Amino acid sequence: MKPIILDVDTGVDDALAIAYAVHSPELSLIGVTTCFGNIPVADASRNSLAVLEVLGADVPVIQGAAETLVRGEKSRYSRHVHGENGIGNVELAQPIKSILPEMHAVDYLIEQIYKIPHELTIVAVGPLTNIALAIQKDANIIPLIKEIIIMGGAVNVPGNVTPYGEANIVADPEAAAIVFSSGANVILVGLDVTLQTLLPRAEIKEWQQSNEQATALLGKMTDFYIGAYEQLYPGIGGCALHDPLAIGVAINSSFVTTERMDITVVTEGEKTGQTIGVPSPSATVQVCVTVDHVAFVQHFLERIS
Ligand code: BDR
Ligand code: CA
């Protein structure tokens, strides 16, 4: 079993990624760290706790960054895509557990990396603020992280929140720049591949009718998310499985093919958040360039439904 920490801004597709990880015996989800992003960080923590409880998973949630490295608090959250509460306006029971008290996600990440050197996979599916802060606090962790699988960026395709930038990178471009240039072993799962992984509405109908409470609730959340996708991309007929694909890559890297690239993040002007990739065989960032979307979506569905 591969030990992973999932860094999230929960979010409907983050919730799906949590469920996919919990249902995958190849992975051992040792902790969930939270960041602002789709919603404020306190809401991301509450949603993560509530989703884990619905799934019956006993995994600690550790709260992290409330704002960007240098730009202050995010000016606008993604409630139009993920709902007012971040999880498609589905009301989950108030979580019984609370976030790990008196510990910040950054310190938790550093502690866990030292606990199992060279073994820990970090799957980061929100802004990269927590990871950048951990690297800034203790650069000695960099070679001790097995890999950081990141949902973020748009290297050879347009962005989704601007014509150039993808949401997680635009949310904190300076943090992303620190992580990509750190020398850490990074796998970048960007819009280049995630926009090909469409979950059709028909599948969600089945989930909503499921006797399993967790599946039915995930179905309701995803129904809202698909509605948002249909408004943003008329005729698309589904939603992109952005964050679940990062978990898919952690389970089975052959879902994708990659190319090593040096990645620069634009931090000024209208292209802020753009990820520019220059192929280089010695680069530490592997950019996902193709995906077997049929095999991945099928695998995801088998694990969730
Ligand atoms: C990413 O942005 C967020 O809205 C999603 O949860 C995903 O992590 C997609 O661009
Ligand atoms: Ca996310």
Give the key terms:
binds beta-D-ribofuranose; 305 residues; binds calcium ion; two-stranded antiparallel sheet; 12 helices; 19% strand; nine-stranded mixed β-sheet; alpha/beta
Kindly describe this structure:
With 305 residues, this protein is an alpha/beta fold. It has helices spanning 12-22, 41-55, 79-82, 105-115, 129-137, 167-171, 173-180, 191-194, 201-208, 213-232, 242-251, 293-304, and strands spanning 2-8, 27-34, 61-63, 121-124, 147-151, 186-189, 198-200, 238-240, 256-265, 275-279, 285-291. Strands 3-2-1-4-5-6-11-9-10 form a nine-stranded mixed beta sheet, with helices on both faces. Strands 7-8 form a two-stranded antiparallel ribbon. Helix 1 (12-22) links the parallel strand 1 and strand 2. Helix 9 runs antiparallel to helix 10 (213-232). The radius of gyration is 17 Å and the shape is globular. The relative contact order is 0.16. The mean pLDDT is 96. The protein binds beta-D-ribofuranose (BDR) and calcium ion. Beta-D-ribofuranose is lined by residues 11, 13-14, 38, 78, 81, 125, 151, 160, 166-168, 242-243. The site of beta-D-ribofuranose has 14 residues, from helix 1, helix 6 and helix 11. Residues 4-297 form the Inosine/uridine-preferring nucleoside hydrolase domain. It comes from Paenibacillus turicensis. Keywords: Glycosidase, Hydrolase. Its EC number is 3.2.2.1. Pfam families: IU_nuc_hydro.
Summarize the structure.
The protein has 305 residues and is of the alpha/beta class. 38% of the residues lie in helices and 19% in strands.
